[in-house]
Amino acid sequence: MNRKWVVKTPDDATIRQLAEEGQFSIEFSTILVNRTIKTLGDFKRFISTDLHELKDPKLFHDSDKIAGRIIEAIRHHEKIAIHGDYDVDGIAATAILYLFLKDVGAAASYFIPDRLHDGYGLKVTSID
Q: How many Å apart are CA 4 and CA 6, to the nearest integer?
């Protein structure tokens, strides 16, 4: 099956300006603009490793309950399974969480679904 990437060009002036300011190629700047990164400042924030730029995890609904339940599972040596995702950020997130849990003594395992066989999202069959 032959496929061809189609890249939208939403705003040529924005792309050209970002390419010039960042000394990026037009192609790279086009991809960034398509992902709402329209200024050099946006780009620097996007690639920042400053932990202060991260969202507060307490913004997640019931995050205190979730954290407490994970701590309880670790203390009682319960099994913790991570349901990952098959894209690059999903695999990276799964690996980071798995390694952290193992470092703190959790009985952790993980499952990365097969895109073609398992589809997208959490499924009852995955839990089984």
A: 6
Query: Which residues lie below 8 Å from residue 41, measured CB to CB, with a gap of 6+?
Result: none
Dihedral of alpha carbons 112, 116, 120, 124, sign:
negative
Describe the chain by its helix, strand, coil percentages, rounded to 5: 55, 10, 35
Return the pLDDT at 94. Answer: 96
Closest CA to 79 of 112, 111, 110, 108: 108
Return all residues near 7 (Cβ < 8 A) that are at least 6 apart.
27, 30, 31, 34
pLDDT along the chain (128 residues), means of 10: 72 90 93 91 86 83 94 97 91 96 96 84 80
Count Cβ atoms within 10 A of the Cβ of residue 12 and give its class: 0-12 exposed, 13-18 middle, 19 or more buried.
Answer: exposed
Query: CA–CA separation, 11 vs 98, rounded Å?
Result: 41
What pTM was estimated for this model as a whole?
A: 0.62
* 11 DSSP 8-state letter: -
